[in-house]
Each structure stands twice: as C-alpha cells, then as structure tokens.
Amino acid sequence: MAYIILNKAHYFHNLDILCAKAGGKECVMAVLKDNAYGHGLEEMATLASAYGLRRAAVKNLVEAHSIVSYFDEVLILADHPPMIEVSPKISFAVHSYEALAQFSSSTGLHLGIDTGMHRNGVREDEIEKALTFIAQHGLNLKGIYTHFRSSDELSSEFYWQRSNFEHAREKIQLLLNSLGLPHVVFHAFNSAGLLRTSSLKGDDFARCGIAMYGYSTLDSHIAHPELKPVLSLWAEKLSSRILKKGERVGYGGLYEALQDECISTYDIGYGDGFFRFDGSKPLTMADGSKTKGRMSMDSFCLGGEANSVCVFEDAEPLADAFNTISYEIITKLSPFMKRIII
Ligand SMILES: *Cc1c(COP(=O)(O)O)cnc(C)c1O
Question: Domain containing 121: what range?
Fold first, then answer.
C-alpha cells in the first residue's frame, strides 16, 4: 500500500531554524491547517507538541477538536462560529467587523486587521468601532493579527504591510487601555516573513506553515537557511509485465515500447490526491526513473520492476512540472494514505 514517510529529524531541523529566528519555542505557532498541509494532522500535532510548541492553527473546528489536547491554544483560521460551546483552548480568527456579532462572549477571538491584502480583516478605520463592540458585548478578545500578501517577494510590499500593522498596533494598544480591555497577543509573520527577518519586531509569535514542512517560497535573491522537506511519498508495486515492442500501455495508449521492456504498475493515482499527469511527457521519480503513459485514478506505470518507488521527497520539481506551488502538491495528498514517522 502506498504510504507517506514523515522525517522527524528534518522537521525538528526546520523548527530549530524557525524558533531561533522567532526568539524561542513559545514564539512559533504551528500552522497545521488542511491536514497539516497534507502531512497528517495528528502525526504533525504529535511531533510539534513533542518539540515543545504550545500553539497551533488549523482550518476548522473539526481539525481543532482532533488536536486540541496537544496544545495550549488552537486557532481556527477559516471556519464559522460554532453553535456549541467549545473548549477554552480553541479560538477563532474574526474576518470582518460584521462577523463579531456572531460570536458568544465565551469564545476566544483573534481579530484580523486588513493591512493591505484586502482578503479578510477589519480596515484600519474600523478598528475603533470593532474594539468598542468587543468591549460593549464582553467578547473574549485574545489576539490581533494580520496576514502578508507578498512576504516572499523581492519588493517593498512586505515592509509596507508590516509598517501598517505596527501603526495599527499602536492605535489598538491605546484603545485597549482606554476601553479597559485586557492585554492581547499580536501576530503577523508567516514562514516567508519570518525567514527574511531577524526578529518579530514586537509581535508575540509567528504563524509558520510551509517552512516547518521544509519549503521556502522566498524569492531566490533573499538569503535564508536551508530547510529540509519532511514528507516523502512512496508507492508499491501492483504488477510487472513485459511490454513487447510496439505495444502501448495505459489509457489512450500514450506510451509505446520501442523494444521489448519490463514495466511495473504502482499503487498511486490521482484518486490519492496526486496531480494527474496526462502522459504527454514523462514525470521523474525521486530515483530518476520516468513514468510511462498516463496516470490512472489508482495507479501509474514505470519502467523496471522495483517493489517500491519514492515518488517524491521534494515537492518543488513537481510543483514546477505542474505549474503550481509546493503547497498544492503536498496539501492535496489523501488523508487515507498511511503515515509513517521515522
Ligand atoms: C496558511 C496561513 C499561514 C501560514 O502560511 P505559510 O506561508 O505556510 O507559513 C499563516 N497565517 C494565515 C492566516 C494562514 O492562512
């Protein structure tokens, strides 16, 4: 059966780098959304917590419930307010002023500030209104955050957004005092933002996703320490056969043997969340072997007869081959595949 190997030493290596930059283990929130970027939510939560991280972020309440026992706080980034009472360790990102009205006073909130991405968050001119609403309704404000739209790009945009957030922070701190609201945490940096800076500049922690898993999305001109991919994907052989000269394999018969050759079929397909290749050109496995023909829902073909093959141990070349980003290659991997931690 196809499986995923998670390399604990690589993961801890990446966390060492991120925690050193952020200023300690308490200054990194592990972003474990979307099944920990496809790595496996429970597995990565166990490792993050064993390393000593105390905060995590996930996509929704279902994910939060499955890992809340490992952390002091789990922040939900993209879900709607619950109808039920949730654990005091679970808090929600709030994406607009209007959304505030949907939360009960017991639910922990992190208020998003729109500092230039214009995807989510409260605009600077709505901050006072939002904090006043929070004070009047006795809402449980725990944090203030923003998100960068271009932290990996070689441009001034990142610095522009950061200064917008610093400006907002000063204003918010004054308002918290005057409204009698308690101290809250501030956070803005994602992986790329953290990798390109040397300190959190007054923030309490960084929210790190992709870099924990071993990938940098930073522009190649921006120096950063070497990260190590955590995940490798392995397929196992279903069958071998001799393809005679002139015979063609798979849907559409796209690959034709130019001479008699041994080929094998392996147990990963696009049904497992791997990108479907259409057979117009071969895809290269980690050991250099090339695919033959088109990928099926549950299988694909290679030359040779090895019992197992490492499909990839670095998502970057695949991301290039499929004209996407490493995030998408790893995040799509089926949660039903077995995960093995080594
Ligand atoms: C996904 C996400 C992150 C993590 O981003 P990386 O680039 O993977 O580090 C941080 N903050 C928010 C709000 C996110 O949605």
Answer: 8-213
